[in-house]
Amino acid sequence: MLELQNLTKRYGDVVAVDDLTFDVRPGVVTGFLGPNGAGKSTTMRMILGLDRPTSGSVTVNGRDYRTSTAPLHEIGALLDGKAVDKGRSARNHLLALGATVGVGARRVDELLDAVGLAEVARKPAGSFSLGMGQRLGIASALLADPSIVMLDEPVNGLDPDGILWVRSFLRSLAEEGRTVFLSSHLMSEMELTADHLIVVGRGRLIRDVSMTEFIASAWSDKVRVVSPDATALAGLLAAPGVTVTSSSPTELEIEGVPASEIGDLAARHGLPLHELVPLHPSLEEAFMELTKESVQYHGRTDGALLTTAAAAR
Amino acid sequence: MTATLPDDTPPTTTREKADPTMTTSTSPDTTTAHTASSAHRHRATTAPAYRITLARVIRAEWIKLRTLRSTWAMLTAVLLTIVGIGAIAAASATGAVEGPRDGGGPGGGDPLSTVLSGSMLAVVLVGVLGVLFGAREYSSGLIRSYLAAVPARLPVLWAKVVAFLLAVVPVVLAGVFVAYVVGMAVLDAGGVPTVSWSDPGTARVVLGTAGYVVGMGLIGLALGVLLRSTAGAISALLAGVLVLPTLAGALLPEAWDGLLKYLPSNAASAFTSTVPTESLLGAGTGVLVFAGWIVVAVAGAAVALSRRDA
To answer: Rounded to a whole number, what is the largest CA-CA distance in chain B?
Structure first.
């Protein structure tokens, strides 16, 4: 259980985390979602006592984490998979970390096996790929059988197989009653893993909702129709509460009528349909809509970079 | 400082006994099986098996220190430096090998200074080893993982100091003793006057030299933690602690000497040389002043470590 109360972190004039209040509960996977620079990592560092809050407080299992008597058993965290000593082997890395709470070689070997690093356990961690580093980081988070597992961008760099493994793994951790808290800037990662969502932007809380609620709020009943007789169909559909928009003479976007009724109507009037597609916005789109005001680093998509590069050449 | 952590549980782990055996496959299914079987245990947050103790944190730092190749390379170099340079200096003093033209050689004719002259280089090596041990986790970002594992923070510093001493003290002590025995044998064989262990000051100088080398290592370690940068801390150690006193002594008017003798390396000279000089402190005061510098450096590192964001 993590409890954040008006948590705030300022670096000079920059407010990295702005008055965050939320709980992360045991038994569910909680996704911590926000664009780059939204303050997710800073928040996680404050939870671990690495950064001191400017104001507000955070407790881990009801207490200040700095006073914990069994730290790695309370929170297992992955902050940065690349944070390893390049010359030290994966196994020795875990042995050193685990030694702080008496975790021994046997447990370390079991974990290396479980995350799929048994064969490279004695290789220098500096030679690891990003994905292997993430696996090592996940192993380090699980060293002391923690009640809270907190992972910053865990699937970053993993192959599809690894992503699937992490997902099912996190699910099983939550099913055992553990608190699972993971951050991401991609909705698609959360969609299949998280039960609950904390959405942040520019350090502020935007949403604290269950996944089910978020999906429901993102729902729309738009339908796209392609038909050579689009104009005729638009005439038939006109009714109160129905919006029809058209981007080309043969294409309609209809809101307020289910796809099935549109199809039936067209059939009754003998109008040919080439396409009849319900348009559910992806959760990714819903998320981007939610956070578009707070995206800190906008990339340009006008091709200016390419033009400049060409000109420079 | 040992009171920072509860230290009542033995450092040996009882963890393995309680741990269900995981299967050896890496598929998601078997991992699930493992975690499900451990479900009943994770609520007991203060289970003794996972208690953090200072002894365990020391063990962690010891593992970190011994699992880096650079540690062993440095320690070997320290041993070879102290013994090798001492033997060469002794041979040079006997005229067995050709020495510097003026015949002075390192140590200026004092047999103890001659056989221990390798410590001048060893002190740099041990200082750098201390810096590396203190600062290298900051450059990799690994320090966050360790401080998240030891959120009380200060035990990490105490444990680093203990682990460092465990590794360095035996090597440096062995170095100065072998250098003393070998060096004196070389001098004796060459017909040059030697000193014996029972002569006044001999034991103090040999042990004092070891203490100086180890102490500079601790100052290096503290500077590493304080500055969080390997390059910065090495520069500070070499410039501020080793070079500046010599330079200041040469450049500043004599009136400053009263102050300069309190600088770390000058304070150490008070107990690492047999010849008493007006410009140095007494041996006993020198030890206290040098120890004071170590305490100040470590205390500075402790304050920085506990106050700063990691």
So the answer is: 79
